[in-house]
Specification:
six-stranded parallel beta sheet, N-(1-d-carboxylethyl)-l-norvaline Dehydrogenase, domain 2, alpha/beta, 3 domains, 14% strand, 21 helices, binds nicotinamide-adenine-dinucleotide
Length: 450
Amino acid sequence: MNVAVIGAGRAGLIAAAGLADFGMRVRCVDIDETKIAALTRGSVPFHEPGLMELLDKNRKADRLHFSTDLAEAVEKCLVLFIAVGTEEVAPGKANLAPLFAVTRGIAKSLREYRVLVIKSTVPVGTAKAVLAELGRLTPIVCDVVSNPEFLREGSAIENFLRPDRVILGGNSEQALAVVRDIYRPLYLIETPIFTTDHETAELIKYATNAYLALKITFINEIANLCDAIGSDVHTVAKALGSDKRIGPKFLHPGPGFGGSCLPKDTRVLVNTGEQYGVNLRTVAAALETNYFQCRDVLNKLKNVLGSLEGRTICVLGLAYKPSTDDVRESRAMDFVGLLLEEGATVQAHDPAANGAAAALLQHERLNFFNDPYEAASGADALAVLTEWNEFRALGPTMLKRAMRGAVLLDVRNVFVPEAIAAAGFLYLGRGRGAKLSVSVPEISNAVASR
Ligand code: NAD
């Protein structure tokens, strides 16, 4: 079957590669000519493990083509997956202009029945609005299926090829059957496929992300409490997670939830609630609490160092999570911004996201380094904001030797505290208890005597 994926971003490109791997002949269309030219040459515009190989494999098998020609895709493909961006135009308000631009483009080129599949994350009511727009623009009858995407950057290929579930929303049995057929390889691995109406499918995506945001926020607050009580958040999280009603995932403390999806989708859900006269208090509370997590973490550093004016802080990790170069709404970037506001100089390193971070934030007191030890050179304190695996292998003694100061703020709890302390650091973890956090007077003495 010929299918098109419109939008060659993180979601679209993974879908294009994955659908080609399912055996579809895929045309991947984007308005960004530079991106399409690069993809045609074989380069991949962002960091995602395994993506280059999957694209290569399917391109060589002649199942995957890149183009800027939407009309040709509409002519040749029965099914048109739409995966354009839906970033916010205002807090809680998704930008649907790209989606409707694509809808108009499709309508203009339509000659016969087509199935439009909305993969982009869109507010409740959008699929019906797209159908209505098509009805206004063309007499040719088409169907729309809502098929929200749940991939996680860093493991996106695996998530697409072996998803936890597939959601299909719509009211046309014919269209739903066509899309179900595309996902047939997933039947073999017994993937649950939920078929429902448009609104429910759209809501499931937002409810999922809001729930994940709540879970992260909850464990972050428990981590704050663990610091105060002297308990270990990982023991709490393990015990919590072994309760089958709760589950172990997303119970790892950090600087707050970030990325291109969780914050925006949570805000849009709160907004949807308001539109329907429903106050989603827990979701709104998660957003508010999340705002303070980075600031709480910064205060830990200030409690130890005092004013950050004139201090040099090494920040390891800028991407919102490991194995991606995505810095959209990364809390690590927020943390860098807060450090700069406090008058600190920041020496930053990320294994993949230095370029994306530099494009997002330029400042005379912000410098990027390709090597973590160089980033640590002369720093008063080192903060780990993203849990890249390679950071676990860093030598504490070498880091300490490179630095001027001796404070290590492990916001993701990647290090073994005892090993860090043995290297002469004052270790500040996230909810790792009294034994592992060093009390303020001890730290102040150590900083004073450095
Ligand atoms: P992105 O910004 O990386 O990519 C969007 C792409 O759409 C860009 O390449 C852009 O050039 C293209 N585009 C915009 N207008 C177009 C048009 N008129 N015609 C053709 N192409 C056009 O966005 P993304 O991260 O891939 O997200 C896309 C959607 O998928 C969003 O709704 C997002 O919420 C959702 N989603 C993303 C992820 C993720 O991990 N990134 C996961 C699940 C769902």
